[in-house]
TrEMBL record:
InterPro entries linked: CCAAT-binding_factor, Noc4
One Pfam family, short name: CBF
PANTHER family in UniProt: NUCLEOLAR COMPLEX PROTEIN 4, NUCLEOLAR COMPLEX PROTEIN 4 HOMOLOG
Protein family (similarity comment): Belongs to the CBF/MAK21 family.
Protein name per its UniProtKB record: CCAAT-binding factor domain-containing protein
Cellular component GO terms held in the UniProt record: Noc4p-Nop14p complex; small-subunit processome
Species of provenance: Caenorhabditis latens
GO biological process, one term: ribosome biogenesis
Ranges of residues in domain CCAAT-binding factor: 10-157
């Protein structure tokens, strides 16, 4: 079953993992087999979501040795460089959750005593997890992805520059059609100002970019702006004065009645 294809091998290992976790089934070198089947070809399949979900469940236990988790982190990071755009976001979320879930693997992101390495000690061709030297390496692939053309991938790759969270985040899966529609709905050059450069090239204003001199800013007048008080013109209006005495109930003639006559 393992020799037919990587996808069927992962699915069969999912059934074996269920027997191991629920029925105490013994399968030696289980993680070595999963590690050998994890390659960039899996990320181009239509079933990549189920494959990454199985990988997350395989590495869900906090009692897994650190060298095993570190080897999977490095293998996923290498696969990330060759993965399609619809698989890069969930893999980045999975890598961040694994670092949060296994704090001992945080040395791949932040070391107390940083070292200068001229070559990556991690051996990607090694199948024995004891000999991959993953703990001696780092997640330098995240720094490379910070220059990715996709904005969401760049933002997710910046987690290595921040303090690690204590709560795992949700791994989001989006198909290629959804990503295409999202990118097409954005305004052209909204982030990097490419639309303005394109307009200048069409209008023949390329000399403005070559001078390198910024345009002088206009002096800002005080009292004007968003929070400036509103000024209203004073209008003098004439008010008519009524000199006549008021007429009303006070002008009526009230007869004087003798009070004792009312009781007769």
């Amino acid at each position: 079953m393992f020799d037919k294809s990587d996808y069927h091998g992962i699915l069969s290992l999912g059934a074996i993992f269920r027997l191991i976790s629920q029925h105490n089934f013994e399968y030696p070198k289980f993680y070595d087999k999963v590690y050998s089947l994890t390659n960039p070809a899996l990320l181009y399949m239509s079933q990549k979501e189920s494959i990454l979900t199985l990988l997350d469940s395989f590495l869900s236990s906090t009692h897994i040795p650190t060298y095993i988790v570190a080897s999977f982190l490095k293998r996923l990071s290498r696969c990330l460089l060759l993965a399609p755009i619809d698989a890069q976001e969930p893999i980045l979320g999975l890598i961040r959750n694994l670092v949060i879930r296994h704090p001992n693997c945080s040395e791949l992101v932040h070391r107390k005593l940083p070292l200068t390495l001229y070559d990556d000690p991690y051996d990607n061709e090694e199948t024995d997890l004891h000999k991959t030297h993953a703990l001696e390496s780092s997640l330098w692939e995240m720094k490379l992805l910070q220059c990715h053309w996709n904005q969401s991938v760049r933002k997710r790759a910046h987690f290595v520059d921040k303090t690690l969270q204590k709560i795992e985040s949700y791994v989001r899966f989006r198909c290629s059609d959804e990503l295409f529609s999202v990118n097409m709905s954005k305004s052209f050059g909204g982030e990097d100002g490419e639309a303005e450069k394109y307009r200048k090239m069409q209008d023949g204003d390329e000399d403005d970019e070559g001078t390198g001199k910024p345009e002088p800013k206009k002096p800002r007048r005080k009292g004007f702006g968003k929070f400036a008080p509103k000024h209203e013109e004073k209008v003098i209006r004439a008010v008519g004065v009524n000199s006549e005495a008021p007429k009303g109930i006070l002008d009526r003639h009230v007869p004087i009645i003798d009070v004792p006559t009312l009781w007769k």
